[in-house]
Backbone:
């Protein structure tokens, strides 16, 4: 195995790993949020905490795996009775 | 001030910090929100575009920042649908975790005050400081509507400012007003007052409406809403749209192809052999690049959709199709969700919140995934480009455009047929009248069209750069490892994880004509439909004997697949729920796993049966 091949292999593993993590975060938003909260623990360095903050933030598309429609806010169930004011 | 008004004015010196934009649907709240916050929320010339609250910030003067809520349009505080309930509850301060706004900006369409003033009077009863934003004053002036702002302000008892939300700087007067201390709490009307009578009084005092205000609208509507010509105009408009998608986009697509080929050849020249080179050329460039090529077609499709939305034609189309929709078991209110489904099923399903009847809403949710979303366009375009010759039919029409139009029609027909079957299964057969405001026609504003196109381009490129790229990388990995054993006779991909999965799935999909390469593409295609194209590009690139053979996907599949297989795959994509996000949104919006599994099962069953019939017939005929 040449040095060139080893370097290429190292970069490929990194890219594949990042892609796998990204898709896990997309498809499993609850896991992503929990992982994000875990990474924010003080025992980790600041850059890991920063990733944690990003991960625990609003899940992709209200937990749907999609965040492209611009309407992805979790609806709040309204239970209040309707009111007639006139 | 009127005798019917009781004075309960309260003086305040506080500056507004949290305001809510409230008003009837389609009065320009979201356009105003975009002006104030610099946001780019979707606007259109029909009711029901905003179904949730949106929040933004605006610095009206140095150090004075206000939070702005854009609420769904409502005709009354007596809410009849979920989106109207959100508006009502926020205005009343009843929504958990949501502070009551300290100022309501009631947005009124100046061209339609007869309808909009009634809600303004209702809002005034809440006892919250209020400003009236008289929007679209330019359109009102053009039609000869004269509004005496001072008299209206006096009669309403709240400050009135003029705005033109779609024009740069059109919210200046509102911004100046927002930088003033909170206005007096508006005086409440007597409890027994008839709001319609009060509206008539306000109009008589402060508004002069010429008799032939809507003459142009009426003239256009005589054709657009005609029981026969209306349908002809609708069909011709849609047909031309799909013709243009294929004909106009071709040169731009060729340009992107050349750029991708250049990058691929350059990388081949400079990079030594190895896994990274394979990942970049056969994975990233072949895969994600093959999807990026379809950007011009998507933009041309949305150019038409946005222009139609802006013009005010779409509610007319809803009106025309109402009888057809009701006879198929849908409601006229289903039109806007189904229309949104052409972009993406997710906002379409969310837009069903405007449907009051729970059963109607459920049927609309279940059929919305059948509408051809923009993510299917790359798959359709690839297969049409590979198997349908670019011939001209009847001297003017592009055959590829005709086939694309037919596929979109197939989606609509499927919606109507499935809704019809569900109607037969329903015990309760309630029918709900469609009450829909027909907005005035207007020339699409170039800024809104440009924003809409930019949004679509951004969304598409971001999808290519995130989900599609990630899945393509993962698929490349699964298609490359483990490598072929020593002495292997088949291509290396046959021995890979993906190759084995594809061969295993082939047993299920062989009766509908799918080979193992298609089977591989179907799996990542569940995450995003366009990934099927990038997945096939990667699989065929890795299977190819040489790099040049992997350059373009269309010639490869046209030489390796039968026409029956291509038609079968097209039929599959018309019906199959190839999108996990859509299923997740169905689960969320219905709060029911059962409904989601039902939707998944019936869509897959429909897709399999349609593909089976298509393949069996086509393989005998072609």
Residues:
């Amino acid at each position: 195995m040449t040095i060139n091949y080893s370097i290429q292999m190292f970069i490929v593993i990194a890219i594949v790993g990042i892609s796998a993590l990204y898709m896990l975060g997309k498809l499993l938003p609850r896991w992503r949020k929990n992982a994000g909260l875990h990474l924010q623990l003080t025992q980790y360095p600041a850059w890991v905490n920063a990733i944690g903050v990003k991960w625990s933030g609003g899940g992709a598309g209200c937990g749907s795996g999609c965040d492209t429609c611009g309407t992805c806010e979790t609806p709040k169930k309204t239970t209040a009775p309707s009111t007639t004011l006139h | 001030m009127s005798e019917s008004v009781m004075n309960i004015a309260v003086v305040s010196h506080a500056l507004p910090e949290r305001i809510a934009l409230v008003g009837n649907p389609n009065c320009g709240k979201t356009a105003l929100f975009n002006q104030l916050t610099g946001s780019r929320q979707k606007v259109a010339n029909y009711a029901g575009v905003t179904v949730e609250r949106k929040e933004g910030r605006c610095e009206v003067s140095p150090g004075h920042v206000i939070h702005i809520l854009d609420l769904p349009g409502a005709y009354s505080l007596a809410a009849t649908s979920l989106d109207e309930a959100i508006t009502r509850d926020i205005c009343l301060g009843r929504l958990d975790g949501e502070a009551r706004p300290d100022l309501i900006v009631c947005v009124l369409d100046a061209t339609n005050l007869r309808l909009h003033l009634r809600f303004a009077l209702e809002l005034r009863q809440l006892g919250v400081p209020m400003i009236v934003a008289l929007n679209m004053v330019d359109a009102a002036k053009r039609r000869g509507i004269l509004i005496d702002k001072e008299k209206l302000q006096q009669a309403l008892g709240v400050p009135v400012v003029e705005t033109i939300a779609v024009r740069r700087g059109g919210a200046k007067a509102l911004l100046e007003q927002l930088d003033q201390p909170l206005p007096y709490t508006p005086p409440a009307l007597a409890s027994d007052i008839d709001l319609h009578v009060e509206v008539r009084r306000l109009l008589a005092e402060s508004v002069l409406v010429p008799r032939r205000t809507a003459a142009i609208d009426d003239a256009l509507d005589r054709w657009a809403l005609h029981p026969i010509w209306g349908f002809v105009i609708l069909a011709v408009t849609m047909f031309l749209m799909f013709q243009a998608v294929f004909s106009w986009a071709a040169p731009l697509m060729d340009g992107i192809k050349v750029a991708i080929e250049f990058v691929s050849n350059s990388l081949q020249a400079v990079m030594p052999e190895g896994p990274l080179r394979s990942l970049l050329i056969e994975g990233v460039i072949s895969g994600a690049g093959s999807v990026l090529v379809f950007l011009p077609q998507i933009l041309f499709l949305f150019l038409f959709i946005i222009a139609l939305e802006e013009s005010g034609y779409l509610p007319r189309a809803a009106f025309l199709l109402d009888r057809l929709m009701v006879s198929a078991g849908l409601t006229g209110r289903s039109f806007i969700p189904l229309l949104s489904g052409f972009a993406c099923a997710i906002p379409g399903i969310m837009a069903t919140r405007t449907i009051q009847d729970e059963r109607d809403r459920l049927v609309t949710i279940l059929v919305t995934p059948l509408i051809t979303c923009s993510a299917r366009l790359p798959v359709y375009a690839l297969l049409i480009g590979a198997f349908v010759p670019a011939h001209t039919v009847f001297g003017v029409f592009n055959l590829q455009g005709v086939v694309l139009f037919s596929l979109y029609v197939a989606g609509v027909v499927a919606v109507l047929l499935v809704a019809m079957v569900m109607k037969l299964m329903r015990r309760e057969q309630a029918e709900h009248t469609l009450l829909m405001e027909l907005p005035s026609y207007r020339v699409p504003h170039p800024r809104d069209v440009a924003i809409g196109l930019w949004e679509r381009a951004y969304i598409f490129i971001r999808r290519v750069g995130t989900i599609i790229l990630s899945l393509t990388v993962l698929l490349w990995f699964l298609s490359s490892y483990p490598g072929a054993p020593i002495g292997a006779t088949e291509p290396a991909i046959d021995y890979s994880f993906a190759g084995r999965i594809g061969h295993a799935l082939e047993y299920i999909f062989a009766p509908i004509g799918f080979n193992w390469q298609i089977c591989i593409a179907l799996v990542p295609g569940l995450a995003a439909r366009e990934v099927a194209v990038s997945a096939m590009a990667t699989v065929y690139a890795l299977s190819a004997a040489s790099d040049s053979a992997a350059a373009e996907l269309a010639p490869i599949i046209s030489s390796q697949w039968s026409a029956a297989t291509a038609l079968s795959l097209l039929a599959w994509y018309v019906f199959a729920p190839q999108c996990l996000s859509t299923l997740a949104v169905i689960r969320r919006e219905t709060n029911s796993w059962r409904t989601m599994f039902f939707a998944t099962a019936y869509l897959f069953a429909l897709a399999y049966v349609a593909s089976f019939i298509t393949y069996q017939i086509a393989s005998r005929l072609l």
Observations:
- Chain A touches chain B at residues 4-5, 7-9, 11-12, 15-16, 18-20, 22-23, 26-27, 61-66, 68-71, 73, 75-76, 78, 80, 82-86 (CB under 8 Å).
- The radius of gyration of chain A is 20 Å.
- Residues 3-63 of chain A form one domain.
- Chain A has one domain: 3-63.
